[in-house]
Specification:
Blueprint lengths: L4 E12 L2 E12 L3 E5 L6 H8 L7 E7 L5 E2 L8 E4 L11 H6 L17 H13 L15 H13 L5 E5 L7 H18 L2 E5 L3 H7 L2 E5 L5 E4 L5
Parallel strand pairs: 3-8, 3-9, 6-7, 7-8
Antiparallel strand pairs: 1-2, 1-4, 4-5, 9-10
């Protein structure tokens, strides 16, 4: 039996600088799917993820997230249920790696809960995620002193700590060597399988896409796009 759609995209058009870079995108994606978005630079991968996050208004069409209760949400109203890793990372340079990871919980916590710091259980979760990503020894180090690849993994941990229903990742392994890239994507894939999180990951590397993706969306510009639901090969 096929799974019901969690994300529905209907006749979506995305424009940049008054030029349509994506037209007529229409897909329905179930929860627990690892979907890669592929294509050359400038084809609209980042813009599509920005629309899915509610940070960019599409030119036309609609995006809906449907929860198990049957309730539907537009992207902007669904942000508290999302984890995001964008290329600019948006980390706090002077804060430690652990603190940056913990910031992923702020959207789900009332301000008074963190007035005197995060609970021990939250800090333990952050440390476990950092360890899984090979950063255990850097938890107390300011992000400003980390390398680009280390910062990228901190951003992944921050996106995962709140156990989002949907995780959007824009080239999350671009600064990593193949071994660390696979470790990072394996953690995202595990979360996808374990909790039913929908992971949408923009990737340039077709080898990694073939290895980890359940579904692959290839963008070629305008109405030229292709969705492959065949799973990893």
């Amino acid at each position: 039996m096929s799974r019901p759609p969690f994300l529905q995209i209907r006749d979506l058009t995305v424009s940049r600088e008054q030029r349509k870079i994506l037209e007529g995108l229409e897909i329905s994606v179930p929860a627990g799917t690892f979907l890669t978005v592929e294509g050359v630079s400038g084809v609209g991968k980042s813009s599509l993820l920005a629309c899915l996050a509610g940070m960019l208004e599409p030119g036309s069409g609609e995006i809906r997230y449907r929860r198990e209760s049957g309730s539907e949400h537009r992207p902007a109203s669904f942000r508290t249920h999302m984890g995001c890793v964008f290329q600019n990372l948006l980390l706090t340079p002077n804060a430690t790696a652990e603190t940056n990871v913990l910031c992923g919980l702020l959207a789900q916590r009332p301000s008074w809960r963190t007035l005197f710091g995060f609970p021990r259980a939250d800090r333990q979760k952050a440390c476990v995620l950092l360890a899984r990503l090979g950063l255990a020894d850097l938890a107390a180090k300011p992000v400003a002193k980390l390398s680009g690849g280390e910062r990228q993994r901190v951003a992944v941990a921050r996106a995962l700590i709140a156990r989002p229903e949907c995780l959007l990742a824009d080239e999350p392994v671009s600064n990593l060597n193949p071994e660390l890239g696979r470790t990072t994507l394996a953690l995202l894939k595990e979360e996808c399988s374990r909790s039913g999180c929908l992971v949408i990951c923009a990737l340039h590397d077709e080898v990694l896409a073939r290895e980890f993706a359940d579904w692959r969306l290839r963008l070629r510009g305008g109405r030229d796009w292709e969705l492959n639901t065949g799973g990893p090969s």
